[in-house]
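Internal tracking record. Fields below are filled automatically when a chain is submitted to the structure queue. Please do not edit lines marked as system-generated. If the sequence contains nonstandard residues, flag them in the REMARKS field before resubmitting.
Queue: standard
Priority: normal
Entity type: single polypeptide chain
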Amino acid sequence: MTKFLLSVHVLAAVLAIGPVTVAASMFPKALRHAHSEPGAPEPLTTLRMLHRICRVYAVFGLAVPVFGFATASSLGVLGDAWLITSIVLTAVAAGILALLILPTQEAALAAAEASGTGTPVPNDDSPEPGSGSGSRVPGRLAMLTGIFNLLWATVTVLMIIRPGSTTGA
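SYSTEM-GENERATED OUTPUT FOLLOWS
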């Protein structure tokens, strides 16, 4: 049963988290493209698709910790420091995705759609609508996505190395 749980856990991580990391990483560049071509349908279609991938796969990504806890329980490692660290890093990554990346993507997409229709859209971080020299959202999203990806990479390394592992690797 442990091998089955571990297999599902790893497959869920690859199939759910992988697409989120790729789509979230592509979103800032697509957003810059949308800002450079206001009103063009292709950049907006790309933004919609990337945001949808992030949202849908984030929900599927909930299977990763569910099967991770089941696997850890069957292996008897729930109290190990490397696992607790991985759990905390996973929670931080999930929080960044759910509370920062997805809402920022949604707001940026809405602003890009509105600017494509000729509706004035305030720039982010500007005190008044229409002031400022441009949007800083793509850079902020790139930074948040980089942190999200780094957290997942760290969790992956911890899962492979597993300090105190009996694999001898």
